[in-house]
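Our collaborator T.R. sent over the components below with a one-line note: 'Predict the complex.' Nothing else. No constraints on interfaces, no templates requested, no preferences about which chain binds where. So this is a plain run: every listed entity goes in together, and whatever single assembly comes back becomes the starting point for the next discussion.
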Amino acid sequence: MKYIVGFGRFWYDFIVGDSVFLAIGGVAMLGLGYGLVQAGAGSMAELLLPLTVAATLVVSLPRVRR
Amino acid sequence: MHNVLLFGSAFLASSVEMVEAMTIILAVGVTRGWRSAILGIIAASIALALIVGILGASLVQFVPIDALRVVVGVLLLIFGLQWLRKAVLRAAGLKAKHNEDAIFEEEVSELSAVSASGEGLDWQGFVVCFKGVFLEGLEVAFIVITFGANSGRLDISTAGAVAAFFMVCGTGLVVHRPLARVPENAIKFTVGLMLTSFGTFWGGEGVGIEWTLKEPTILLLVAFYWALAYVLIAALRPRAETTLATATDGGVAG
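Returned assembly:
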């Protein structure tokens, strides 16, 4: 059990690090991109993906500052 | 003439992929240490050699390149955003810049722990380097096989890729020393930009986005995130000065 917890903690620290928000954001942004492509809005996804990445960075900043 | 065109196409297409891999290797090597970067390159090269050796020309049909791009893209996007956020906070004065003395003390204590446990590889540097080299290496293999199969001259497309390999490696060897003299915080800022841009591009490709400008899109993404980061730094700097002034006043009063 100790090894499973350690293994899980290693991957959590490795991927999530000190910001759960950015980790969830990274997955959510590509999920949104996939949804738009599947809905036939690939060109909109091309514009929206960088914009959502930018928005995620902006929103993440005040959270760290507090 | 056809052979020259085939060589040139394989050379240029492979160069683009290898430059992407080299950018990541240099970024990891300069910021996280060359040990993890070199081990990442070796591990990725072995994995690539095994896959290409076993699958050969049927590689194009068996490897789910889009799924791989999504995984690599998500990880680079998360790592890149984390680095970029910290770099913006440091540049704005809201987070302490690297203190070399404190880092030295920390390194010494970490090294003591490492020598006791036998561990010490920077896993984040290793994995980022591994994934970058592995993905780009696979893409080069795809280029060589598809160009070679379509023209019936696998030898010429392979020669183009080999020439690109030596050209890109030579460039990397020349620029890695000057890069090491650039201040660490500036390098980390740049690495955050690069990882976020590559993560957006590869992740987007993986989920099915067809970038209108193809690979040059990466340059646009770098420019966009760079401009955004500078706007954020400019916006956050006055707050940092206010925070510092308040803290100083409090210190004097107390």
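Summary for T.R.: Chain A has one domain: 18-65.
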